[in-house]
Amino acid sequence: AAAGGGAHGLSFPAGFLWGTATASYQVEGAVNVDGRGPSIWDTFSHTPGKIANNDTGDVACDFYHRYKEDTQLIKSLNAKAFRFSIAWSRIFPTGKGAPNQKGLDFYNRLVDELLANGIQPFATLYHWDLPQALQDQYKGWQGRETAQAFGDYAGYMAEKLSDRVKHFFTLNELWTFIQLGYGDGVFAPGLKLPPAELNQARHHAVLAHGLAVQAIRAHGRPDTRVGLAENIKVAVPYIETPEHIKAAEIATREFNAGYTTVILEGKYTDTFLKNAGANAPKFTAEDLKIISSPLDFCGINIYNPEAYVRAADNAEGYEKIPFAKSHPTSTSKWELLAPEVLYWGARHMQNIWKVKELYITENGCSGTDELTPENRVNDTDRVAFLRGYLSQLQRAVTDGAPVKGYFYWSLVDNFEWASGYGIRFGLFYMDYKTLKRYPKASAEYFRTMAQQNAVL
Ligand code: PNW
Asked: Residues 32, 3: contact at Cβ < 8 Å?
């Protein structure tokens, strides 16, 4: 057998970490249990017309009570890592002030259960369920105070969990919760802010990331490691020649100017500031230093390319090629399928920003999964997705990209935000009436890949 891999297939290096991911509001349920405070997603999902079918996360997958059963599912996949998120309002019901021990105890139990089963916990501190009190008091991310409160909460979590949790992520997908929540109004808190205010909210989010990095360093054990989990907007070179690859790097840097680029470079790009003009965010040099606090690793969530690009003789140095109307998607219409995005996402992180350690913190495929009378789910689309995307990831690693692990989104079908329960990403099918979990064909596929450490 090849080093660390199977006799057949495309092998990964020994020690490559296989995992799956979830997020608190999408799976936990138990929203009124043990002192949890309300979050903006409780408010949003209970506002009629905001979520498909008016679904809410009130019960979700009841992970709060079934985490032991789900730990066994993770184990059955041969996964050695699990990425989950902590509900801020379980720990600080109003976002700050006195901590809620019962909320902390849940994450203590979860972490202990994972470790007892040989699964490394990777904890995300913010996956969009902002305490409602911070929305009411400070207008959420529009207020600089929210960034400060996040830093304090992050430090507290590092102090309490870093004896057992060695990898923390600050914020999950800044682009998504800022753009969709404060710009387009389709995610909580459902705002459509004008550009200047949107830019300021985004600035507070990147600032919160930096403050959290510093707080985790200050309060965590010396071996605590911290990174970001951002859905980097990837430009894919439409032909893999040096000129188009260069163009894709230029484009990727600009696509992420308000997020990953400012975090990793410590400044907003000239083009970003020029385009924003009078609407540019207000910030200090000290802010930029905090925002760009050094990281131990980067997590990237990747599903689809932002664009295919080609080199161009214009001021930008690149040109987007519009997607064909017939470009295939998963059942999520935004998820334009392109396996090579995983290759280029990893390579850009390495080539543009010299990142030394990377994890794919999310990647997954939504489908129309149905349970057959024999209790099977024949998700051939997801199996094809995994083979295609993982082949490209294996190519990236073979070419030297420092990718140390892969987390499939998601372990189980769950509350898919504004799409409710109708869109399914899981390796396990959720029967929402009984809350029984059933392995899909893709679970068997994943389990074999993880076991052989190779794409098969
Ligand atoms: C990510 N878009 O969300 C999130 O991190 C997960 O919580 C989510 O379940 C997963 O991807 C699948 O959607 C996104 O509209 C939601 O471009 C929407 C978009 C992107 C990412």
From this structure: no
| Ligand 1: nearest atom to the Cα of 173 | 5
How much of the chain, in percent, has pLDDT values that exceed 90? 98
Structure tokens at 13: 């290096």
* Whole-number Å distance between alpha carbons of 192 and 195: 9
Distance CA 419, CA 407 (A): 22
100-138: per-residue pLDDT in tens? 999 999 999 999 999 999 999 999 999 999 999 999 999
Nearest residue (CA) to ligand 1, atom 15: 334
Which secondary-structure segment (H or E) carries 321? Answer: strand 318-321
In whole angstroms, how far apart are CA 297 and each of 167, 228, 229, 303? 9, 7, 10, 20
- Ligand 1 atom 3: the closest Cα is on which residue? 176
pTM greater than 0.80 (yes/no): yes
Name the DSSP class of 421.
G
362: Cβ below 6 Å to ligand 1? yes
Tell me if 176 CB under 6 Å of ligand 1.
Answer: yes
State how far the Cα of 242 lies from the Cα of 249, in Å rounded to an integer.
Answer: 11
Query: How far does residue 342's CA lie from ligand 1's centre (Å)?
Result: 16
Query: For this structure, is 173 an active site residue?
Result: yes
Task: Work out whether the CA dihedral 114, 119, 121, 122 comes out positive or negative.
Answer: negative
